[in-house]
Write a structure and sequence with these properties.
Elements: H1 2-24, H2 28-35, E1 40-42, E2 47-53, E3 60-61, E4 64-65, E5 73-80, E6 85-94, H3 98-107, E7 111-116, E8 122-123, E9 126-135, H4 137-155, H5 167-170, H6 183-190, E10 195-197, E11 200-206, E12 209-211, E13 214-216, E14 223-230, E15 235-244, H7 245-257, E16 261-267, E17 276-285, H8 287-298
Antiparallel strand pairs: 1-2, 2-5, 3-4, 3-8, 5-6, 6-9, 7-9, 10-11, 11-14, 12-13, 14-15, 15-17, 16-17
């Protein structure tokens, strides 16, 4: 009887080990299938990485043709288990692909954590969008594929990257040569008085942080601003947005939902508390609609305009 009991205990232990092993190992074949790529496992760090070169467009840097091996490779790396995984990645994009790819990331549960350049004097201009996420490995791999597919959908019809933001940027025709933005309707949207200069308008909203034992805010550069030019019906807005790390994703989603283009995500300082992230943006349309889009994103953050969020 004792021998039989020991036998069943051994079987139960083996089943438990198998189940635990299954829960702690990434299904790399499934990641390959979902991303459409073939990855490699770093056994020492337990990280599985898929990558592909952006070699369909010739890129030159300072007049030299850049081999993809020198830094033009998109990648996504996975670690953890099938059920509880972490993914980080860097996505190589051309300017006309960025916002489609970003929307795909945000709409599929990924975070976008940086958008910047790696080179000077590159032709065409190349941008790098960093993404990340936590969840099941299957969901993360599928989301990464959505990002890649969004970029491919832009690039497939024409391998020459575009030099505009797309149809929305030109749907009202060229911007008028003389600026004539009416300030009052924008003041109403923002709930504050903006600056006016030569038919343009600008709003600056401060945010608080601290550095080196001092409180820092609007006057020293911790601020969100929006500048408007053109006419009331055919305007452009550009600006800078200051937010904490915890506010970044909500702001990105709000701006992209309003079809505002994101052109950079980065930091301006180090060692500030709380840490402040900055994004730069550009949008076209009626001035009041653009103001509403920016204000909707501002309302998701703590600022001198919105007060402290609960």
């Amino acid at each position: 009887m004792k021998k039989t009991t020991t036998h069943w205990r051994l079987i139960a232990a083996l089943i438990l080990v198998a189940a635990t092993s299954s829960a702690t190992e990434l299904d790399t074949a499934k990641i390959d299938e979902l991303t459409g790529l073939k990855g490699q496992m770093n056994k020492e760090e337990g990280v599985y990485k898929v990558t592909f070169p952006r070699d369909e467009v010739k890129v030159t840097v300072a007049g030299w043709e850049m081999p993809p091996f020198m830094g033009l490779g998109t990648w996504a790396a996975f670690m953890g288990s099938n059920e509880k995984a972490m993914m980080m990645g860097d996505t190589v994009l051309f300017e006309d692909e960025v916002n489609s790819a970003m929307s795909a990331a945000l709409e599929n549960g990924l975070s976008v954590t940086a958008l910047h350049n790696h080179f000077f004097f590159d032709q065409p201009n190349v941008y790098f969008m960093h993404i990340g996420g936590e969840g099941s490995a299957e969901n993360l791999a599928g989301a990464a594929k959505k990002v890649y597919d969004a970029a491919k959908a832009v690039r497939k019809p024409n391998t020459t990257p575009g030099n505009t933001f797309g149809p929305r940027a030109s749907e009202k025709g060229p911007l008028p040569k003389k600026n004539s933005i009416t300030l009052a309707p924008l003041n109403e949207v923002f709930g504050m008085s903006g600056e006016a200069k030569d038919g343009m308008a600008k709003f600056t909203i401060g945010k608080k942080s601290s550095m080196g034992g001092m409180e820092i805010g609007k006057a020293i550069g911790v601020n969100t601003w929006a500048a408007f030019a053109g006419s009331d019906e055919n305007a452009v807005v550009d600006g800078d947005f200051a937010m904490t790390e915890d506010e970044l994703q909500a702001v990105l989603k709000s701006l992209r939902k309003s079809r505002i283009n994101i052109v950079a995500i980065h930091n301006h300082m180090t060692h500030e508390t709380p840490r402040i992230m900055f994004l730069h943006y550009w949008g076209r349309g009626p001035a009041k609609d653009l103001a509403r889009a920016v204000k909707a994103a501002v309302d998701l953050t703590e600022s001198e305009l919105t007060g402290k969020k609960k």
